[in-house]
Design brief:
Two copies of one chain form a homodimer. The first copy, chain A, is mainly α. The first copy, chain A, has helices at residues 3-13, 18-25, 29-36, 46-55, 60-70, 75-86, 88-97, 102-120. The first copy, chain A, binds a DNA duplex through helix 3.
Chain lengths: 121, 121
DNA sequence: TTGATGTTGACGTTCAATGTCAATTCATAA
DNA sequence: TTATGAATTGACATTGAACGTCAACATCAA
């Protein structure tokens, strides 16, 4: 896949023409066409993608795909990463965690939720 | 603190003048002065900071401080964040984990190390 | 009082990202 | 077969963040 193909797929699934989407975004449809055909040298920014996400009412999965294909990071995740920047232990923690498979992560998440709950008292 | 003050502190601790550092970086010292006095509208990029880190032989702590003050993210952490972009379970996991205090994170990290070790067999 | 260091005004440049317009082509339904 | 809506493409232009320069001036310690 690519950003362009992903965008096109999503746009079509919402039954919108390039012109319609361009109108919603307030820009020329020529640019959209280029994006969809990956004729633009650099992938759009996070902000640009978020505008699309809003205008097309994308769900979390579609949003994630677009961000991923463009190599951009969600604002929330960027904040998390920035926090890890200042907390060495978090830094190490994250780097280890990425290596684990889905099941393990889910298990650990539950564990964390409980830890948090326990503290609330 | 601010990026400028942090940079100045680190530079001075390495006994370098602005001119010396500017030479190492291959740029004009005027720019460095501006940076140190936070007279530059936008904080330097990660790449720029990494050049400083190299030229001043900064340790991990100094590097983290500079990146943090500039609101930039370490390359490794960015990769981790990007991976989380594509793995919803990781996304949730990270967002939960940030809430935990140091001790808990350290404990969990040990747990993860063991999980990884166990799989190596 | 000179030499090293730092500050500042006033610019200039680069590059990623965003955007435009008009000519053309493509798809398809009347 | 042709009109119409949709998409593609060449050939630009614009914006904004980041990076950078030069020279004049200021500060200060030896």
């Amino acid at each position: 896949m690519s950003f362009g193909k992903t965008l096109r797929e999503i746009r079509r699934s919402k039954d919108k023409s390039q012109r319609e989407l361009a109108d919603l975004l307030g820009l020329d449809y020529g640019y959209l066409s280029r994006l969809e055909n990956d004729k633009v040298q650099f992938n759009p920014s996070r902000d640009f993608i978020m505008k699309i996400v809003v205008e097309l009412s994308c769900d979390d999965d579609e949003k994630a795909k677009l961000l991923m294909e463009a190599g951009r990071i969600d604002v929330d995740l960027e904040k998390v990463a920035q926090e890890a920047n200042t907390r060495p232990e978090l830094n190490v923690f994250f780097k280890s965690a990425v290596k684990l498979p889905v099941e393990d992560i889910i298990e650990l998440t539950e564990q964390i939720q409980q830890m948090i709950k326990a503290k609330e008292k």
